[in-house]
Specification:
alpha/beta; binds 2-acetamido-2-deoxy-beta-D-glucopyranose; seven-stranded mixed sheet
């Protein structure tokens, strides 16, 4: 890597000043010492990085309680919390219970109207719904099908919208509710980050699994009543190994659920990667032929400030520690005196059935 000094004059005059007063031996000891210290630091950071996924990450302190309140009290977020009821279910697995899943539970998960974890083993702390499958990627479609069935059986009437997220997805619940507010949950629609189907079989595309997707009550009803019991030739059973998000998109299209446009203007609100990958385009150094992400995205890509709506809803691949950091940035950190031009009124509701 090339390092450029902004002010060469000051750098060179500084170093000659330095060498005139310090003996060679001192410099030798200093250099060796710094190298040793640096190596130890690197090794510490690396071993930490290598292991921390296995360690429980739990922050205990009083102040955190404020950060995990479901709403901010008396404000627009309260109205949204009451009027746009969202059940969140989070796909996880036993290895992630005490790390990724726990960080969801301690941060954005608290702001859902109902939070469920879907796993394959019980856990006294996390208390996930235990689905009767073995663990592994090839079971994701099985797990997704049963998760929606469970949610349908127990919660269909109690909530309006049903969000699926991964245990490394961060969700800004207030912005999700704001986006959903104009829509009727009795319309067959779902939202997320929209991909094209590689084989063009799903004409309306499908929503990325990692960025999370949200189904209206009617979409959930159609999925479980019409697609899940194998009444549709375009929706496969859990016995077949399928990419969960692609297959869900196929099933939803088959039962007449519309793929919604979740953007705000031209800016995306659901994001399949970490923010930096959207700001800076992670494929910018790759040949065009390898840019599968651009190839598969339904809408044109924007980068830089345009990448992400000011009312973004999700980001993906968020490590457990970063989840707490996001939460801090969103709900705690406030630059003094900045006027946020916060939204204070809700949009007009769309008449139901406008989709058809
Ligand atoms: C399944 O998909 C094909 C191709 O899109 C379509 O022609 C067919 O009508 C679909 N079948 C059902 C039952 O929806
Ligand atoms: C899904 O679960 C069923 C029932 O346990 C099992 O028979 C099937 O093999 C699973 N699907 C895959 C792709 O492993
Ligand atoms: C882009 O998508 C088309 C099919 O839609 C495929 O043939 C092509 O290989 C894809 N390119 C990349 C880089 O994924
Ligand atoms: C996003 O917020 C920034 C800072 O308030 C503002 O300058 C910008 O215009 C906003 N973008 C949109 C599309 O509203």
């Amino acid at each position: 890597m090339k390092i450029r000094f902004v002010d060469n004059h000051r750098v060179s005059s500084g170093s000659s000043y330095f060498s005139a007063f310090v003996s060679r031996q001192t410099i030798f000891i200093l250099v060796c010492g710094s190298l040793l210290g640096f190596s130890i630091a690197i090794m510490t950071v690396m071993s930490f990085g290598a292991n921390y996924e296995d360690r429980p990450i739990i922050i205990y302190n009083a102040r955190q309680q404020e950060g995990i309140a479901p709403t901010d009290g008396g404000s627009l977020s309260d109205t949204l919390y009451r009027e746009v009821k969202v059940l969140c279910w989070v796909m996880t697995n036993p290895a992630n219970h005490k790390t990724k899943a726990w960080s969801v539970r301690q941060t954005w998960g608290q702001r859902c109207n109902k939070l469920l974890f879907m796993s394959t083993e019980s856990d006294g702390d996390l208390q996930p719904v235990v689905l009767p499958f073995s663990e592994g990627r090839e079971q994701l479609w099985n797990k997704t099908r049963e998760a929606f069935k469970h949610v349908y059986d127990h919660y269909l009437e109690e909530f309006d919208w049903f969000l699926k997220a991964d245990d490394d997805t961060y969700v800004v619940m207030e912005n999700l509710r704001y986006m959903l507010y104009p829509y009727s949950s009795e319309d067959p629609i779902y939202f997320g980050y929209r991909f094209k189907d590689y084989y063009n079989e799903i004409e309306q595309g499908y929503m990325s699994g990692g960025a999370g997707y949200v189904l209206s009550r009617d979409a959930l009803r159609r999925f479980v009543e019409e697609a899940y019991p194998m009444r549709n030739e375009n929706c496969s059973s859990g016995d077949v190994y399928k990419a969960e998000d692609n297959e869900l998109g196929r099933c939803l299209q088959a039962v007449g659920v519309k793929a919604g446009d979740s953007r705000e203007g031209y800016q995306e609100r659901f994001h399949p990667f970490v923010p930096a990958h959207h700001f800076f385009d992670q494929f910018r150094f790759a040949p065009e032929s390898e840019n599968w992400f651009k190839n598969m995205s339904w809408y044109p890509h924007l980068h830089g400030w345009g990448c992400c709506s000011n009312r973004s809803i999700t980001f993906h691949y968020i490590e457990p520690e970063m989840m707490y950091v996001y939460h801090y940035f969103l709900y705690f950190l406030r630059p003094v005196g900045v006027n946020y031009n916060a939204i204070t009124v809700l949009p007009q509701k769309l008449p139901s059935q406008t989709l058809k």
